[in-house]
Design brief:
With about 210 residues, the protein is mainly α. It contains eleven helices and no strands.
Length: about 210
């Protein structure tokens, strides 16, 4: 992917060594829509994450912690794949993190006729952590980084260049982003809020990602 803003080796080294800030989990109207959806029509997704895959989240969380990536972003995998390591999209994205082949290979995953490491939960989670660090390094904002995870860095950079905007919510409300991306970011935030405090949202699971 095209990360847009070029970083020097020194900047990249510093970036990779530090613990990244936590994402802003504020409840915007868009996030509230997704919260309501998770508590009603899409309740099954939350139940699977909280009850069936709590151990998986714990293992993934340790990988993120070692890489300095906030555990809150584990919800990306839940939104992308429902935490199904074998998930495959019509476009060919595979695994927990729904990597396309070029991005997977860029981040060290073997994808060939013999093996597909996108299906390996540990290796793919490490690749996702490194990818997210690069996205944050490029955009210096988690909302934009999440948008880029969904739509691609090049697409988000082009939108920002054309519109002159640098705020995800303004870009979204202005109709500059694809519909899927406009929904993806608040959906990740909403699921993170629920998983971090399930009782508040009417779920009884005791484990969280935070």
């Amino acid at each position: 992917p095209d990360f847009g803003r070029t970083k020097s080796p020194q900047q990249i080294s510093v970036q990779s060594a530090r613990v990244l800030p936590k994402p802003d989990l504020g409840v915007t109207p868009e996030v509230q829509v997704e919260l309501n959806r998770f508590m009603t029509a899409d309740r099954g997704t939350v139940v699977r994450v909280l009850e069936q895959h709590s151990d998986q989240f714990e293992k993934m969380g340790k990988v993120f912690e070692r890489e300095g990536v906030p555990r809150e972003l584990l919800s990306i995998a839940a939104v992308e794949s429902g935490l199904d390591p074998a998930a495959m999209s019509p476009a060919g994205a595979r695994g927990l993190w729904q990597f396309m082949r070029p991005t997977a290979q860029l981040y060290g995953l073997k994808v060939n006729w013999m093996q597909d490491e996108r299906l390996d939960p540990k290796r793919s989670t490490l690749a996702a952590a490194k990818y997210l660090k690069d996205l944050f390094s490029s955009f210096q904002d988690w909302h934009l980084a999440l948008a880029a995870y969904n739509a691609g860095s090049g697409a988000i950079n082009r939108v920002m260049t054309r519109s002159g905007g640098t705020d995800f919510w303004e870009l979204s409300r202005g109709g500059h982003l694809p519909g899927e991306t406009r929904r993806f970011v608040p959906r990740v935030i909403a699921l993170t809020l629920i998983v971090n405090d399930p009782d508040r949202y009417g779920f009884s699971a005791s484990k969280s990602v935070g």
